[in-house]
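User: Design a sequence. Structure:
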């Protein structure tokens, strides 16, 4: 009986604490006419940032189904980053998003939106269509 209770308690503990971060940066992908732009430049920057700064785990969440043309949001967890790492991450994301928006085809591709001043709390994120990015 003790083993069952201990196993249940351990399962509940790991289930409730599987999502580690409480604060996230939000990157929004909006459509103009023909779908949103690709998330590949931002994701490749995040992978490079993780490798360069030797970060063990960088939580990336993707929320799809935000609109009729495939709009979605990408959330990046920031709780386990130092102040210096977080500021470098924000600067790099701003540059990546700016480059992606400048290179887009004006009439067919959507926009990437990123505001470095806004931090989204975990409880403010709608869990509908939310997945962990694992590529």
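Assistant: Done.
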């Amino acid at each position: 009986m003790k083993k069952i209770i201990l196993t249940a308690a351990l399962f509940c503990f790991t289930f409730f604490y599987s999502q580690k971060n409480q604060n996230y940066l939000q990157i929004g992908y909006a459509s103009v006419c023909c779908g949103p732009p690709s998330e590949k430049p931002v994701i490749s920057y995040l992978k490079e940032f993780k490798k360069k700064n030797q970060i063990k785990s960088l939580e990336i969440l993707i929320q799809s189904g935000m609109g009729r043309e495939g709009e979605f949001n990408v959330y990046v967890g920031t709780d386990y980053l130092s102040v210096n790492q977080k500021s470098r991450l924000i600067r790099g994301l701003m540059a990546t998003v700016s480059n992606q928006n400048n290179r887009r085809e004006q009439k067919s591709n959507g926009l990437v939106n990123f505001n470095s001043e806004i931090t989204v709390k975990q409880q403010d994120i709608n869990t509908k269509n939310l997945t962990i990015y694992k590529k």
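The CA atoms of residues 32 and 44 lie 23 Å apart. The mean pLDDT is 84.
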